[in-house]
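Thread amino acids onto this structure.
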């Protein structure tokens, strides 16, 4: 890969159609933020929106705001916006609960669609919550959880497979599955796929309806910049709504919650997957992040993500030979983060963070950098790799303070 000259870096930033978005984030000085795939930064509009929501809608509007500010419609409204980002049909996405809880709801409800099938399938090395929730759901349902290597996945799908639970983009390696092909292959065997879009939404092109995707969940606080612990979302294709029942039959998933009836009657449509009262502050913060993402030209976003990845990869290959890249070469087969292995990845990342370059470490040996086109410039990538190279060649990471592990790594 040819490395751009400093002048070319400046020219690319000057010609960047997304350049204006950077100012719409409250990024601290002296920081190159390469962790937007784990916790997106604060959009300026969110701070202003939160002030209005807290003082006006909550403080003054009080309980009237459920109607007057349409708090009650927020899960569907925000779900609809996320649906546009992921190419899902209107009325098939709601913003609600956490990714973990949404996984549970959809794994249980989807597996029940195929009572004669005994297996839930997933891949080894999947994100821990996906594995743990799938295992527990399988145990509750009296099904078997089969965990197979990625290479064996397609062969493992058979007449006993009820559901396949897969992360579209892998949180560690950045490997991206072929969503349309796997969904079609599963369907040919009468099986369904539940896609976890946590590292895909706002990061790579998605076309759920066109790809025949029936079930998906995804995260609000990563590329959607919804804030720490932001609500997640779930998608269920329209033809399944009436056939599926959430295992958490909460009152807000009822057809008429304010009838306060003893008997449960699920709401028509995807609303039946709501459970309890939505966390309104977090939900409206998420909406500000989603609105910002929707304002960006998605083709430009994905093209820039590819460029930032190629620049990072080329710079590291030239400047940091001690690092081995594990994210795929091919743009169609990867997400929007880049990952490397090194036996001292933890200390190297701590040393980087101390120099203002924030990425993250994933146990046991991965350095991971989110390449988020809305607010990163090409020069940020060049500067980050220059600092990374200095830390590695100068062995600055060997300082004992970089080996101290906190609770969150
Ligand atoms: C980030 C992430 C989650 C997060 O789940 P929470 O319930 O929000 O903690 C789940 N699955 C995948 C694949 C993720 O990357």
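Threaded sequence (409 positions):
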């Amino acid at each position: 890969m040819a490395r751009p000259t400093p002048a070319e870096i400046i020219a690319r930033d000057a010609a960047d159609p997304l350049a204006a978005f950077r100012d719409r984030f409250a990024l601290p000085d002296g920081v190159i933020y390469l962790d937007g795939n784990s916790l997106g930064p604060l959009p300026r509009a969110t701070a202003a929106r939160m002030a209005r929501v807290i003082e006006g809608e909550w403080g003054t509007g009080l309980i009237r705001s459920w109607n007057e500010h349409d708090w009650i419609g927020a899960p569907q409204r925000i779900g609809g916006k996320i649906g546009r980002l992921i190419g899902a049909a209107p009325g098939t996405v709601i913003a609600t609960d956490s990714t973990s809880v949404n996984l549970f709801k959809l794994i249980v409800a989807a597996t029940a669609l195929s009572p004669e099938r005994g297996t839930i399938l997933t891949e080894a090395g999947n994100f821990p919550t996906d594995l743990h929730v799938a295992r527990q759901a399988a145990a509750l349902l009296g099904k078997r959880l089969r965990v197979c290597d990625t290479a064996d996945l397609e062969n493992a799908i058979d007449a006993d497979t009820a559901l396949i639970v897969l992360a579209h983009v892998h949180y560690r390696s950045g490997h991206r599955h072929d969503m349309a092909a796997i969904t079609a292959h599963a369907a040919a065997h009468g099986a369904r796929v539940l896609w976890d879009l946590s590292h895909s939404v706002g990061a790579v092109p998605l076309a759920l309806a066109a790809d025949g995707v029936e079930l998906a969940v995804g995260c609000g606080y990563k590329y959607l910049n919804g804030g720490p612990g932001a609500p997640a979302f779930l998608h269920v294709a329209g033809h399944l709504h009436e056939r599926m029942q959430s295992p958490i039959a909460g009152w807000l998933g009822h057809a008429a919650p304010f009838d306060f009836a003893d008997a449960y009657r699920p709401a028509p449509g995807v609303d039946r997957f709501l459970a309890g009262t939505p966390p309104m502050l977090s939900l409206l913060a998420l909406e500000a992040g989603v609105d910002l993402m929707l304002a960006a030209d998605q083709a430009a976003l994905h093209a820039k993500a590819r460029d930032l990845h190629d620049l990072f990869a080329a710079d590291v290959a030239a400047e940091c030979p001690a690092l081995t890249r594990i994210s795929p070469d091919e743009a169609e087969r990867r997400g929007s983060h880049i990952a490397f292995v090194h036996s001292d990845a933890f200390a190297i990342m701590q040393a980087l963070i101390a120099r203002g370059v924030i990425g993250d470490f994933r146990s046991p040996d991965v350095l991971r950098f989110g390449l988020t086109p809305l607010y990163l410039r090409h020069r940020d990538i060049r500067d980050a790799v220059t600092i990374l190279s200095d830390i590695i060649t100068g062995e600055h990471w060997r300082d004992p303070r970089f080996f101290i592990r906190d609770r969150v790594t």
